[in-house]
């Protein structure tokens, strides 16, 4: 298969966005540790959001796992993809996997930990 370098571009973009999400996650955790944010149970809405986000991340992981079946033939193992696929394919898949995981963790932490406010804007 001809390698045009586009997969390396996709991998670099995924790693860049995953790094940005990691920085935002560190900043968010520092706010939680500093006491500026606290956990808030959201009730049934929180459960629904958790289930939907977990399902979306699970479906993404499932489709990445079965990517060789989609691109080549059903039952194609990953070892064969490493041999016959473009050179940047595995890097792009790994970067996409990390990006999906980082985005899921950031979204869950951001949703469940809310800013502690000193009242509404009108009360200040």
Automatic annotation (TrEMBL):
Species lineage: Bacteria, Bacillati, Bacillota, Clostridia, Eubacteriales
Identification of the protein by name: Uncharacterized protein
TM regions (residue ranges): 6-34, 46-65, 92-114
Keyword Transmembrane helix: yes
UniProt organism field: Anaerobacterium chartisolvens
Record keywords: Membrane, Transmembrane, Transmembrane helix
